[in-house]
Request: fold
Amino acid sequence: MARVYLENVWKKFGNVVAVRDATLEIEDKEFLILVGPSGCGKSTTLRMVAGLEEISEGSIYIGDTLVNDIPPKDRDIAMVFQNYALYPHMDVYNNMAFGLKLRKFPKTEIDRRVHEAARILGIENLLKRKPKELSGGQRQRVALGRAIVREPKVFLMDEPLSNLDAKLRVQMRAELAKLHDRLQTTIIYVTHDQTEAMTMGDRIVVQKDGVIQQVGAPMEIYNRPDNAFVAGFIGSPAMNFMDAVLRREGDDLWVQADGFKVKLPPARFETAGEYIDKEVIFGIRPEDILDLDFSPDADPDLIVTANVDVTEPMGAEVYVYLSAGKESYIARVDAHTRARPGTTHKAVFNTEKAHLFCKDTEASIR
Amino acid sequence: MLPLTWDIVGQGIGEVGKLIFFVAIAIISLEVVAYLILVKWIKFKNALPFMLMLPALVGVAILILYPFGFNIYLAFSNMSMYRFKEFSVGLRYGISNLLDVFRVPVLQRVTFFQLFLRTFIWTVINVVFHVLGGLILAILLNRPMRGKGIYRTLLVVPWAIPQVIAALAWKCEFHYQYGFANLLLEKLGFQPVQWMSDPFWAFVAVIIVNIWLGIPFMMVTILGGLQSISPDYYDAAQIDGASGWQQFRFITLPLLNPILTPAIILGVIWTFNNFNVIYLVTGGGPMEGTDILVTSLYKAVFEFYRYGFGAAYSLVIFLFLLVFSVIYLRISGGFKGAWET
Reply:
């Protein structure tokens, strides 16, 4: 049983609060992602679980044991570091075996485990090499191997893929997910890359300024963000935000922004009723802004005419940078769009999927 | 002493300026000649690097190669105080000089072998304490603490003071009656020691002075090495289950090796060759009891005026250092970086 439980955990460096009152339960065998911008406290949280950073307040449990005062070596965890931290003076075999040797495992057992891990990771032919003779991807595998041989209760990974080139990162992403299925261990994974967060984890924890913003399954966080920060951080290109005012006209609810006005679905009355005639933040994801050419049956109340500033062809689709009034926003449309820079184009806002956020608290209105 | 007037200052600047002017003229003419030969005449395709290195090469030749060659020449001569201008050069003089090094007392009583053993003990004790002391202080300084800069500055002071001044100051501290060494011993309830008249204690005294002088260099060097070790390795080692001692043994020491190796080689060579401390504190005495190879070499040449013999003697000492350096470089893998990633 390797549940990890953080209870009202704080970390302060002098007057700076790095982690603020974090409470989080990580299930046994779960792949949990901590994501957020730099300095949001995600690495500090991980290092507190590892025991490399003291806890200022609160408790951390691994399994059922309170580990606040237990040194890292006795926590039954393994960690993969961003720059791998492979011991430069040891070959791959000894890098992987080091932890087992210090724990006085019998030689045959060490040998078995190292070879087993090397086989899983496909690095059997590298065992005699020094870290400096390895490529970035190979080092990454050795760092994983060093964690695997320990057969720990919990794996902690601190941005393990961020030093790899883009292609290798995509490949290792899938491999790590596979590895998790195979090892059936709890993994806590820190990243600043929302793509990694979306694709790999069972659940995502979004952190900002030391505060946990939202915890949930990837698609849940994507579709139902709790606040504007989470909405903007998860998803690429990021969600468009516009300052707007809610208006009631007859039986309809409208969003009035500088340069356009679109109708909201009637169901919004229930949730957003109290914001009528008040300023809100209107959020809509790029894929929910449609090209009128491809949606000819669109409700005319949802159509916005905008200037096309830039188009970014991505192959299968095009990111179209539109502006209307003082607001500019990105639409993600089919590659066959006729939108050209310098012209005006008609877009359809799919307000069924739009988000509204309170102007003051940035909390989601729903 | 003359008062410092503007005339004297101007004269000084003028003399330095003249020197710089002549050096500049020499370098320019050297480069012109090199340009004509390398580029115009033989059209060498790596001419530029050679031309850039040329002034340094000439400097090395004048300051090292020529004196070295002249030393070998003298070793094969019978030059001495009696034959200062009319000395002869020949193989037999060289052989007899070399044999004399091992055959007769180098000075009045100590032989080469006694001196060699003493130099060996001197070097080993000094370097061991330099490295240990430097290592301990560097590790202490490499931790977050208040007033680190002040400690570091104070600890570097022995290195910053000119050796001559430090050595003479220490000499006074070993005075039988007034030196703090004996005052301290008496306060602690011990008998005062005859620091300057008992050969054993004199040797202890010079070793203490040299240890004091040598620790800062090792400390600063090792501190640099420690700071270049990424803290991530210690994080990883902690997770791997290494205790404090194991982290030192398996992470710090191996990663310091590329710094320690050249530092120890330099330390051994400097200590082996250390002339100042012994000559200034004890003058090699009492009864040649604290002389090591280099001080006896100096005395043989400049106090006993045995130039040919001294030159041969210096070659023998040079060979020891050469052999030592080569062996040490082989064993330790030399200056190969162990931690470049």
Remarks:
- Chain B has 13 helices and no strands.
- The mean pLDDT of chain B is 87.
